[in-house]
Structure formats: structure tokens, C-alpha cells
Amino acid sequence: xxxxxxxxGDPIEHSxxxxxxxxxxxxxxxxxxxxxxxxxxxxxxxxxxxxxxxLCGFNVTMPHKTTIMxxxxxxxxxxxxxxxxxxxxxxxxxxxGYNTDGEGCLRAILDRGYSCRGANFVILGAGGAASxxxxxxxxxxxxxITVLNxxxxxxxxxxxxxxNTVNYKIDIGLLSTxxxxxxxxxxxxxxxxxxxxxxxxxxxxxxxxxxxxxxxDALVFDLIYSPPETCLLKEAAKRGLCTxxxxxxxxxxxxxxxxxxxxxxxxxxxxxxxxxRNIEKIKK
Length: 284
Ligand code: NAP
What we know:
10 helices; 6-stranded mixed beta sheet; alpha/beta; globular; 284 residues
């Protein structure tokens, strides 16, 4: 029997999900299919009724990560606390929801040789990705998490949510060069969760001087993977800092999803190389 998986979203054309999951499916040497399914916000209910049950599972991207939750028979605790689902497994006619973004981020950090336990983090941005990551780091024993955002009300909301969910107090503030510099002084890992520097976005950080406040062994992690090296990462590398873009996190959240679909542990490093080759192929 064919293993059928898919990714749903709007837009969906540029999704790299097929590059990730095809590497795993191919290695099983059994028939498979991985589809990109364009599902607009008002057609999510139709997708659930008509298509989803023919699949073994599907990945979920914008704009459905929260709205999908009303259709699911089970939502795991991490996805519930993030209020977002990016992975749905179809099992015995039931739809089971998970969120693998936090775990993907954590594995990317660990893979670089950095630890979360006892570390100090500065997170820039307070949207969906920042919330997921802050919550994961809080549960993984981070010593201090500071979240700086352009809009204070969003970061206040994030802070309340983390306090209520895992009883962890994060530091918050407005995103400014001075504030980043101040908090960078004792920071081990700086994570950019804003779209500043992303391909197709004209805005960028106006000043990178805050990078000079970081310790020489700090990691600068930009969630963006297109372009592969943002101005933030270029400037960090110029200062001799260790850098990482968002590709590892993207790959690992996909592999964690595959572990859920196939109910087995996967060798991440083995698949990572195959996935990177798949991504390079489609760029040509
Ligand atoms: P989101 O929910 O829309 O949140 C965006 C955040 O960025 C908000 O805090 C927003 O601040 C801030 N922001 C937006 N434009 C800004 C600007 N011009 N100046 C300063 N701050 C700005 O988005 P998201 O889902 O969290 O994604 C954030 C980034 O992470 C994107 O680049 C996305 O591609 C990337 N990402 C990567 C992965 C991966 O696997 N590598 C996974 C998820 C996301 P306000 O509250 O003020 O609007």
C-alpha cells in the first residue's frame, strides 16, 4: 500500500516540505506520495472532510496552524500550550495533532554543541515562532529568557502565557538597539524570530552594533533560511561569532514530524544530508 503524506497551506508553492519528507519516504523503499495541497483558509473544513482521511498524515503551515485545532480528535500537550499544530497524524480514522517546531529548534541548538539547560537567551520578536521557542526553552531549563519585540502588548501576552503554562518568568522589553545591547551582555544564544533580513522583506536591522556586546562564544541563530546568510549572520560572522540559520530547525521539525508519522526514531544526521541535497536540486 502507498504511504500518502501531504503539506497543506496558503501559499504552498514554495514549501520545502517535500524535500524533507521525500528523503525519509525514499529511504523506506516502499511506494509513497507526498503532495503539496493548496488549502485556503475558508476551505480547511472541506479538506478535512474530503481528503485528509486518505492520508497517513499531513504537515500544516500558514494560515492553518491554529484553526486546524477545532477539527482534531486529539492534541498533544505541547501543541495545546503553543496553541498551534504543524503535524497531523491520521490513525484509526482519528486526527491527532502535534507541534514539532519547539523540538526542531531545540535539536538544532543541541546539534551545534550548545546546551539549553542553564543558558541565557535573547529572543527578538514575539510572534508564533518566538512563543513556541520561548516556551520550549523554558521547559528545557533555560536560566534566563529575554524577549524583545516591536509591539509591547504582544510580548506582554507571550510573557503571561508562559507564566500561566509553565510558571516561568521571562524578561520582556521593546526591540531597540540599546535594549538588545544591554541584554546581549550575558547572553549565550541570540535568536532572531522577526522577519527582518528575510528575502522579499525590505526592512532590516538598522544597526548591528549590539552584536559587539555578545560574549565571544555566543551563538547567533537566525530563524530565516532564505537568504542562507542574512545581514545579521554576516555581521555576526565578521565579529568572529558562531552563527546558524533556520535551515537546521526547518529540517529537524520535519524529521520530528516523520518520527510521529512512522512511530520510529530516525537518524537525523543521515537524513539531513539527503534533505540538503534535495533542497539544492530544486534551487538549480
Ligand atoms: P509572526 O507570528 O508573524 O511574528 C513576527 C514577529 O516579528 C512579531 O513579533 C513581529 O512584531 C515581528 N516583526 C515583524 N515585522 C517586523 C519589523 N519590520 N520590525 C521588527 N519586528 C517585526 O511570524 P513567525 O511565524 O513567528 O515567524 C518569524 C520568522 O521566523 C519568519 O522569518 C519565519 O520565516 C521564521 N520561521 C522559521 C522557521 C524555521 O523552521 N526555520 C519556523 C518558523 C518561523 P509585532 O508583534 O510588532 O508585529
